[in-house]
Amino acid sequence: MAKKILLTSFQTWLPHHVSNSSDDLLAQIQAEEFLVASLTFLRQLPVDIALASQKAIATIQTLQPDTVICCGMAESRDRLTIESNASWSQEQIYTSVNLEQLIAKLSHTKISHEAGKFVCEGLYYQVLRYLKQFRPQSHCLFVHVPVLTDMNLPEILADFRLILEEMGA
């Protein structure tokens, strides 16, 4: 039986954003046939920690995925970055995924230890906290996606596909 992966993205949040690169990436993946895992898309979450977290956790409760991969836009970054942890107040929660092993096969991805102190980190924290408490067998990643261009899109897509394959194996 194929593993279930839930993928999330966000809406835009600044007036100059034509689109959100996290959602653009998921649109590309959603258009492909993916056989390694069963993918469910929860695209264009509101840029609001409480609302985005509620929608994501409700979907997790219904779907009961093996892995949740939350995606967000990082305009200032030039490659995919996988966040090692999320903080809220004084608490810090780390992903259960071995990130060093995961990125060993990736050419355009690095590990980040700073999820951004915005809605991305808030969602990541809430999902990690929920999974830790109610679905400890499930994994969660947060992937920040740079602005996609004709130059970086092939590398970003290739790395993201490998992440999906690894998490679906």
For the biggest sheet, the summary is: 6 strands, mixed
Order of helices and strands: EHEHEEEEHEHEH
What is the tally of helical segments? 5
Dominant shape: globular
CATH C-level class is: Alpha Beta
Number of strands: 8
Low-confidence stretches: none
Distance between the termini: 11 Å
Label this structure with key terms:
two-stranded antiparallel sheet, 8 strands, 5 helices, 28% strand, 169 residues, Aminopeptidase, six-stranded mixed sheet
Describe what you observe in this structure.
Helix 1 links the parallel strand 1 and strand 2. Helix 2 runs parallel beside helix 4. The model has no long low-confidence stretch (mean pLDDT 95). With 169 residues, this protein is α/β, with parallel strands linked by helices. It contains five helices and eight strands; from the N terminus they run βαβαββββαβαβα. The relative contact order is 0.23.
Task: Compose a concise summary of this entry.
One of its GO terms (molecular function) is cysteine-type peptidase activity. By secondary structure, this protein is of the alpha/beta class. The protein is built from five helices and eight strands; from the N terminus they run E-H-E-H-E-E-E-E-H-E-H-E-H.
